[in-house]
Write a structure and sequence with these properties.
By secondary structure, the chain is mainly beta. The protein is built from no helices and nine strands. It is elongated and about 80 Å long.
Length: 134
């Protein structure tokens, strides 16, 4: 079973989890932290053992999908007697708020952590209003 998470800035519960059937292959749900500031949100996803080549990110309409596969192999001269983490598939799906600019998503993968930055659309960002003095 896979999850769909809803990301809405400025709400008491930043992410709402919902079941979403129909994705077929089983996958681990990576833990994700979401941090919001005045200009957008940043997601931090733990993806141990995932390389850039095996990480696939997709934004379609208001849906962000993270698909990844890790390959934690055993060195040739060793033999595994017990394996809990060897080959793992990760999948996480988010429904993004209309306040977020899905055309400007940036991503970075470093030391097993995926960092996604999604800015708010210009209208949703706070702005200072100048006061005229007569």
């Amino acid at each position: 079973m896979n999850d769909v998470d809803t990301v809405r800035p400025n709400t008491p519960s930043t992410i709402t989890r919902k079941d979403r059937p129909g994705y077929g292959e089983a996958a681990l749900t990576p833990p994700v932290d979401v941090v919001e500031d005045a200009t957008g949100i940043t997601l931090y996803a733990d993806l141990p053992g995932v390389s850039k080549e095996k990480l696939h990110l997709q934004v379609e309409s208001d849906t962000l999908t993270i698909d990844a596969e890790s390959d934690l192999s055993v060195p040739k001269d060793l033999q595994s007697s017990h394996t809990e983490v060897g080959l793992a598939r990760f999948r996480r799906v988010f429904t993004l708020s209309k306040e977020l600019d899905t055309e400007k998503v940036s991503a970075e993968l470093a030391r097993g952590v995926l960092t996604l930055r999604i800015p708010k659309v210009a209208q949703a960002q706070p702005r200072r209003i100048e006061i005229a003095v007569n």
